[in-house]
Amino acid sequence: MLSRLSPQVPDKIIALMQAYAADPRGDKIDLGVGVYRNADGHTPVMAAVKTAEHRIWQDQTTKTYTGLEGDRAFLDAMAGLVLGQAARDDRRAAIATPGGTGAVRMALDLVRLANPAAQVFVPDPSWPNHAAIIGFLGLARVDYRYYDTVARGVDVAGMLADLGRAGPGDVVLLHGCCHNPTGADLTPADWAEVTAVIAKTGALPMIDIAYQGLGQGVEADAAGLRGLVETLPEALIAASCSKNFGLYRERVGVLMAVTPDAATRDVTQGNLSNLNRQTYAFPPDHGARVVTQILADPDLRAAWQDELDGMRQRVQALRAGLADTLRSRSGSDRFAHIAAQQGMFSLLGASPAQVEQMRAEHGVYMIGDSRINLAGLSEGNIPRVAEAILAAGL
Ligand code: LMR
After folding, report:
1. For the segment 296-305, what is each residue's pLDDT rounded down to a tens digit?
2. Which of 14, 205, 263, 377 sits at 20 to 30 Å (Cα–Cα) from 34?
3. pLDDT digits (tens, 9 = 90+) for 283-294
4. What is the pTM for the complete model shown?
5. Which residues contact 234 (CB under 8 A, 6 or more apart)?
6. For residue 359, how far is its CA from the centre of ligand 1 (angstroms)?
7. Which structural domain, as residue segments, surrounds residue 155?
């Protein structure tokens, strides 16, 4: 039986993590996978997480199962964090999931249950696992224009034109903030236009928000999706706590469905809980409980928010530092987009051969489409990264 299997094409982000780990050079620089690093190149456990874990360790008296949907307090806390006041409780269904990827997978599984013929409209480019999961589930994918590689910003007109081709029964996938891999986000006015186009088509919006708090701040980063949820009858929202709580390996995520009415909510909730049951029964709880502790305690929440604000400011400073160094060394403004964009990523616009040259000759690792994780930089290695970029002919 197993000899019938065909080899899988490795995910490019995971393959790069492995190549980096195998490189013996002591001065290699990892701008690959999207994890936050501090000035020492370390991905620390956030202080609020440590405190919450300590409290759980002291107070928790059982590890028996939660509900299939996860812990209700976690789902409510995450609805508050992501949606704010945007959807009434009786219009909201939700499940806890293993990370944001689990939420994306469950969202697309739900779409397949509702309409196996759905076309999923995906920004070009997008996080590679979006297309991989859509393909794995046998759903149809339509790429819509998103990034203008010449202007190095969102191609809003192209995006609106392409989204206008969606119809009822289709899905429009949007990045809530900190677009991965481009760092180019919609403005509030763009969100309003995108919302209006989706409203006309009758398609279901699905928002993947994995970097809330790392763009402009926790509230500002959710404003676009909140406006959309207030306007449209339905939406799916996949949220991750990997980056903004630093809980990567604990796998903490949530899938929320906003429904037109309470009756649809009940049926949707039943389907979501059943999807969890079929896939892994109960979602993981430890990390979700940590997040709940933090969000429910005003002091802990304030401490978390401060630390997250500091992380965001550090990434913005690294963006500015790299853009400035490139400007002064190249005598040109062609890297200004790096300072202007948001979140962890930007695209350098390098060819695969140039990406390979930077890796082989300078030990600078980035994804093959030339996505760099700005949070992988440090004040000390910016000059070397700038040198590698310019030496590659960019
Ligand atoms: C990334 O894009 O690097 C992260 O979201 C990690 C992942 O799972 O790909």
Report:
1. 999 999 999 9
2. 205
3. 999 999 999 999
4. 0.96
5. 204, 205, 257, 258, 259, 260
6. 19
7. 65-296
